[in-house]
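Example complex used in Figure S2.
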Amino acid sequence: MKLRLKDIALELQVEERFINELARIGKAHYPNEYGGFLIGYYSDDKKILTITDTILPKKYNATPSLFMRDNIGVKQHFKNFYKEKPKKYYVGEWHTHPNNKAIPSITDIKAINSIRNDKDVAILNPVLLIIGYTDNHTEIGFYVLIKDKIYKYEN
Amino acid sequence: MDKNKHLESVIKTHQIAKEEQLLNKHRDKSKDVKESLEKEYGSNIYSPFNSGSYAKNTAINTKFDFDMIAPFKKNAFGSNGTLKDMYNNVYDFLYEKYKDEANVIKQKVSIGIEFFRDEEGDIVKIDVVPGRELNQDKYPDDENLNLYVYYKYGNYDAGSERIKTNVKAQINNIKDRATNEKDSIRKIIRLLKVWKGTKLNYPTKSFLLELITIKAFDNNDITGSLWDKLEAVMEYIRDEVTKENFTLKDPGNSSNDLIDTLTTSERQNFSNDMDNIINRIEDNDENIKTYFPENEKFIEEDNDDTYGDKGAGLFSIPPKNERFG
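Predicted assembly (480 residues):
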């Protein structure tokens, strides 16, 4: 699946089955939210982000409207991905919105800004994937922070 | 000022792809020189190939290193032919062939063909390095060549009969490292080449900068931001290059020591220059622009149309806790 930003020449590529797998994992935690780290890599010209994998948190707290994750116990996974060819690295995070739309909340917007500003985070444009779902409907929203604004990727 | 951001811009504005037109002109001339050599020397020459920084992925766009190795058969210049005969014969041929469109110059181990400025103001330069196989018909197997040293080259005396090397091994060694370690080795090599480009006739060969950068990474745990890495490599050069037992083995022939291409005083100057750069930048970050200038031709205003990073590579550990809603 190729997604693009409307006015900025940046692209995001991700396999549909990978998204389906994340949705399956997330829904298993119903009625609570759930999520994890997104792993991927940029093209040489830094115009295309390919998301390939997830790392799931070892420690987290969740309610139907909140998901808090810790990075304890997963650092080695990031190192292992970085040893692959091409090198893969942390590009953002994903989480579910049970019984809700795939639209970022105020908490989500604060989180993505805090990620970008963290001194140990190398990237300037973290991506946020939200999987909103109800009993009979699932939708996804991919967002990216550019400077101080959040943009949504479109099909 | 943000030193890392500046260094990233130095690299970006020196990307060879930005000079596509000039690159194509070099490719075209290089092809022409190769075909001329093949036509002139027929079965006495193996296929000439590029060996410069373009072939090694370490090129910058202010200096196109288009070196062409011309591998000759052992008896190409008679059974008693010397390396000097080879060098002079190739020079005479290239001079006659290109004298109306280029300056053809004898250099240390190569023959430079500097084409006259064209109507677009571009100058194309191809360096031809004649080499001769060690034993008749063995080059296809061992890829070893002897080069002729035309004039004093560091500690190699003029008229030295030979520098034996395997150029393909040299290229592959640098290319592999520069390609696989893009965020470290390749970037630092390119930055050091940009610095070298600010000096007039600096004696340190690009090949030496490539090898010394690789050695610095191999002998030290060099991590951190781009500036951290560059500073660490410069400190390594400053501290090591003057040591008597310091060596830089030629990946094409371990008995060649590339540090021998510099005299003792040139090594001392190289060390002093590194020390000076580090100190001046420590005095004032802005001085980084003097030693590592952007290529002004390609400076762009910041735009949002690329995914960005903070200049310290792309590896991250995410923040410890994060809360989503």
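The first helix of chain B runs from residue 3 to 13. The radius of gyration of chain B is 21 Å.
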